[in-house]
Amino acid sequence: xxxxxxxxxxxxxxxxxxxxxxxxxxxxxxxxxxxxxxxxxxxxxxxxxxxxxxxxxxxxxxxxxxxxxxxxxxxxxxxxxxxxxxxxxxxxxxxxxxxxxxxxxxxxxxxxxxxxxxxxxx
Length: 122
Hints:
By secondary structure, the protein is mainly beta. Helix content is 0%, strand content 48%. The radius of gyration is 13 Å and the shape is globular.
């Protein structure tokens, strides 16, 4: 089992940057693929980015390609989401999740953090 805690959210102006972190407890972090999802008010939770166990492959939603970068440090049990060129439509609660592989549906992930709010003002 793994517990996940996100941090790094906040309020930023359009065009700005934020770096989210997700710290995992336990010694099995490196055995999980990690994903980031987001949920805006009145909308379903949607896939943002994911990374495999080794960090050698990543995938992104089309809406964030070229602006967001997912990375992980298995020695620190942490996954990151660097978000650049932020837009008001990126406003949402961002969640990290742990699963067996890169999945695009939230239901395929086993463990979730509590989320961190990102608000982008225009």
